[in-house]
Amino acid sequence: MIAFTDVRKQYENHAALNGVTLNVEEGTLCVLLGPSGCGKTTLLRTVNRLVDPTSGTITVNGRDIRNENPVELRRGIGYAIQSVGLFPHRTVAENIATTPDLLGMPRASVSARVDELLGMMKLDPARYRGRYPAELSGGEAQRVGVARALAADPPILLMDEPFGAVDPINRAAIRSEFLELQRRLRKTILFVSHDIQEAILLADRITLMRNGAIEQHGTPAEVVGSPASPFVEEFFGSDRQMLLLETLRAADTATPEALHAGAPTIAYGSSLRDALLRLLADGAPSVTVLDANGAAMGGVTVDSIQRHLAARGEMR
Amino acid sequence: MSTFFAYIADNAGAIGIAIAQHIGIVAAALAVAVPIGIASGIALAHARSRAARTAVFYLLGLGQTIPSLALLALAVGLLGVGLLPAVVALLLYAILPIARNACTGVQAVPEATRDAARGLGMTNMQIIRRVELPLARPFIIAGLRTATVVTISSCALASLIGAGGLGDFIFIGISLFKPEAMFAGAIPTAVLALAADWFLGRWAARGHAVR
Q: What is the CATH number of the domain that holds B70?
């Protein structure tokens, strides 16, 4: 777990962090969201002491990081950044092996680990191990960047817009692969983003920041559905209700009464937004939500979506 | 032409010794200048203050404008005649191009690469050795090339303060008006400079197209 208590960072003429108190629970992914200059990257960088706060306390698994050696602290925390920062003079395998090498892990096990990570990132080890970063596409480079962050199997990951520099199609693919991976690995992740869709898709918790302080912290549905301030409401913009549908699972709204034979179907993990789009696209009266095993568990109609939103006080 | 070959044949042993002396003086100067140049280049690249860096390079550049002959004379004043003042004067000359290129090379390392290296847990020394130096390598070799060529040619002047080398033949040729002696010193000097330049050029190009 990462715990920030009243963390402040004062630079010469501006305050980057204005008293941040935040807990990131073990095994959860917390997205730091907000406009540029809101302090999200600075907050992220305080965790591995790339930035030392002016005041306040940060503990990682109960240990105050001020008492840790910064270099050793960093070797125990995964780090991936938007510009990736792969070492251009080292092969993909050497790049991924950076932290294990620094930790003095035996060569043979590092090599096996590199192959395992490339596999996780859907990159064929035989083809990619020996390549240099200049020979990778943007998406491949970011996958290698994430693999490098995971290399020493750290319990905590810091990710600063790790999928920022990829084209939209590749970005969607990398995101959902990463989400799948995180469901398996259950790392504690602090993830900086300025992309609302990305935050809603990946986050267990969203922390919306503004001017170096937390504006609102909660589950995506809480933050999108019940904005704590006009700023939050404005941040999600005019399609906030559509975003809210994206944070709600169709399975939670589905009822057996709304089941219709021959209705189009959507998968278990689908959002209400997926359900609504399906209803509109197919012109069907209802859509059937399948459970994890592919059996029909209930139907969703436009009416039931409206009732669900009304119950949350959304349709005014 | 025939007098030239006759002169070479008659003085083959002495020319061989002069070449060896010449290489020895250059090697001694570079052996000291290279580590100092690279280290100060790295240090300057990491200097907090941009103004300090500019000031240092300005002063070094100013030093470079002192004619090598004057620098040799100055060295004699401080260290007497012979090998030592020649080596010292030449190494002072060689430091600037090496330092300037090393500094440029380290500054050219992308900030993201350095940030990643630090974030992954490298110490400052490891960042220099494993990231900055390899990435600055083409720049450093370019500086070394300049320094080597300049040192080989300026070394001909070292003869004037009794350090020996190929300059001996050049100055004998000038004072006795014996062109064959002058060429016997000048041609090997030029060949040495060209050979060093070619060799370092090959080294710079080796295996570093993609990386």
A: 1.10.3720.10
